[in-house]
Design goal:
This protein has 496 residues and is of the alpha/beta class. The protein is built from 19 helices and 13 strands. A hairpin with a 2-residue loop joins strand 7 and strand 8. Helix 3 packs across helix 4, helix 6 runs antiparallel to helix 10 and helix 6 crosses helix 19.
Length: 496
């Protein structure tokens, strides 16, 4: 009977852990749960020391991943399941180490360091997958968020998993009060320093009293690109007719007319910088020069900086051009940037990812397009080049838009840049260098599909822009030292 009760309690505990994990990230994110579920996983190992617990934790990771992200990442369900099991295989490794360790204080640090290394490996394999990290769930914890100016998101990852390991370690050693006291002091000192640093950075560094009005405009282009037979066949197939091309040109010309009208209205309302969201300037190659001339004339007429987002299709060529072209108030072309971070199945030319910033009287500005914001090494250029405002035209779908917005906010804090991200089919946001969301609008609830806001004109210095993922490399060195040095010592003792 006792075994049955224990079995039933363990089953209930597994179900509860699964539910908390599912709600720790993704569509139903409750940020505090991202701190809780690693504690529950580690406690599960304490309750049951058999190998089946690895299978249970791995299954929760894999099945939970599908629940969290299947709609958000836009993969075929079969591919998503494969990715889920690969992610689960990697993320279970720290728990296997923990169960086989002597559970010393240094093992809590090793546990967190292993997870940092795994998340970095996932980023290297597929950067957009790295955008699903639990660290992004803490984007509203503004004091904690400031640590990314030094460590990137991996500092948050480390603290989350170190905290989980420390909770279990303290519980297991609660009878050894004198033994654990000094280590609790070490842990508390690190957390305290992180908090103090966050307070200082949030309240005293990066304040700006000057701002500029920026507007992002969009039109409902997705329906036309995906479901209109003339436009779809011209842009995505080679079976179009001359009639399809003629009809597509006329329909896209109407879209451009609406975009220029919205641009003019925002300029007259006081916007000094106006940009179009991703894909909005859909155009055939033969009409591109005419559209760019209109953009040049509009920028000069309204005396604004105008950044047009284009999707340029050359008939019978598979790869399209997904790019931004910027004009100054004199109508001069000052920047052309091609999207670098292509999503799965996106048939567009790959840009070189090199920053195309330009100086204005409102600060230094640079455009990045949508999923480019997932590429840490590329966005670091913004910090190194003192970019004050990142303009991010984007195109989302409903389930992924909040994940993309979180990523953009964190990238801005890491690199000391203000962000304005305007998107089709999703949530558009403005955030400052501290990660505060200053304005937002929902495409699905907006009648104008426009985001207009005052954006700070001054960025701030961040160490992360220059040292990059040094924190990850230090974690890796610590792991190497922890695993290799004891073996070297044993070899020396044997040979002595």
């Amino acid at each position: 009977m006792k075994n049955l009760l224990k079995s039933n309690r363990f089953a209930v505990f597994i179900i509860l852990t699964f539910l908390i994990y599912v709600m720790s990230n993704g569509e139903w994110c409750i940020p505090i749960f991202a701190w809780i579920y690693p504690i529950l996983f580690l406690h599960m190992l304490s309750l049951n020391h058999t190998r089946k617990v690895y299978l249970i934790i791995g299954s929760i990771y894999a099945i939970g991943f599908v629940f969290q992200f299947e709609k958000a990442i836009g993969m075929d369900i079969k591919i998503c399941i494969v990715v889920a099991f690969l992610v689960a295989f990697l993320k279970i490794l720290p728990y296997i180490y923990w169960s086989k360790s002597k559970m010393r204080f240094q093992d809590t640090v090793i546990f967190a360091s292993i997870m940092v290394s795994i998340e970095y490996i996932m980023y290297l394999v597929y950067p957009i997958l790295g955008g699903l990290s639990d660290a992004y769930t803490q984007y509203q914890n503004l004091y904690l968020l400031q640590i990314v100016t030094v460590t990137g998101i991996y500092g948050i990852t480390f603290l989350m998993y170190w905290t989980a390991a420390m909770v279990i370690w303290i519980w297991n050693n609660k009878s050894k009060k004198e033994y654990i006291r000094k280590y609790i002091f070490v842990y508390g000192s690190v957390i305290g320093l992180a908090f103090v640093y966050g307070v200082v950075m949030f309240h005293f560094v990066g304040n700006s009293d000057k701002s500029v009005r920026i507007a992002g405009v969009t039109v409902p282009i997705s329906e036309l690109l995906n479901n209109d037979k003339d436009v779809y066949s011209t842009f995505y197939t080679n079976t179009f007719t001359d009639e399809n091309i003629t009809n597509a040109r006329n329909k896209l010309s109407s879209v451009a007319d609406e975009l220029f009208l919205k641009t003019e209205l925002e300029a007259q309302a006081g916007a000094k910088i106006v940009f179009w969201s991703e894909l909005n300037g859909a155009v055939l190659k033969q009409d591109e020069d005419m559209l760019l001339q209109r953009a040049s004339d509009m920028a000069k007429q309204e005396e604004i900086y105008l950044i047009v987002s284009l999707l340029v299709k050359t008939p019978y060529e598979d790869l399209k051009e997904n790019k931004t072209v910027a004009f100054n108030p004199q109508g001069e072309l000052i920047s052309e940037y091609f999207k670098h971070g292509r999503s799965i199945g996106e048939l567009c030319q790959k840009g070189d990812g090199m920053l195309k910033s330009f100086d204005t009287e409102y600060g230094r500005i640079a455009p990045f397009i949508c999923s480019d914001m997932a590429f840490l090494s590329k966005i670091q250029q913004a910090g190194r080049n003192n970019v004050d405002i990142l303009i991010v035209p984007a195109s989302d779908w409903k389930e992924m838009t909040l994940l993309a917005a979180k990523t953009a906010i964190v990238r801005g804090v890491e690199n000391g840049s203000n962000i304005i991200r305007h998107t089709n089919n999703g949530m558009s946001i403005v955030s400052n260098v501290k990660g505060c969301v200053l304005a937002q609008t929902d495409y699905f609830q907006s009648d104008t599909k426009t985001l207009s806001a005052q954006v700070a004109m001054k960025g701030r210095f961040t160490l992360y822009s220059y040292i990059g993922n040094l924190f990850v490399y230090l974690c890796n060195l610590y792991l190497l030292g922890s695993f290799i040095l004891p073996k070297i010592k044993r070899l020396i003792l044997r040979s002595a």
